[in-house]
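Lecture notes, unit on protein representations.

Consider one protein chain, 133 amino acids long.
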Amino acid sequence: MAAPANLDGLGLEALRAIWRERYGAPPVLRSPELLSLMLAWRMQIEVEGGLDRDARLALRRPLGARSGLEPVPGARLVREWQGAPYEVVVLPDGGFLHRGDRYGSLSEIARKITGVRWNGPRFFGLRSQKVAA
């Protein structure tokens, strides 16, 4: 079965049939809208190619980070620690708001949460862990 030019309006089973013919077992989804978007993306990649290296790297950076290191004012940084979520809001003046208190650095907040010294940007996922060789 050739894929139609427009996937809009196709039911879940028709979309699954197209996926199965082109790519094998379809994803386990119950949303025709989501499956249609995923199928359209896969078909577009075949014609135009996928994301370039820079775009893939940019998508791996934490949301709200300009360079992967500096959070943007207004960004909300969320970290789960020992089963509890912790949220920090980046303030326009470079400070951080956590549970109603203002802090000058992410490291102060990480220390308050964990009770030990942490690199704050690393704790909140703005820097990757260095892997020992």
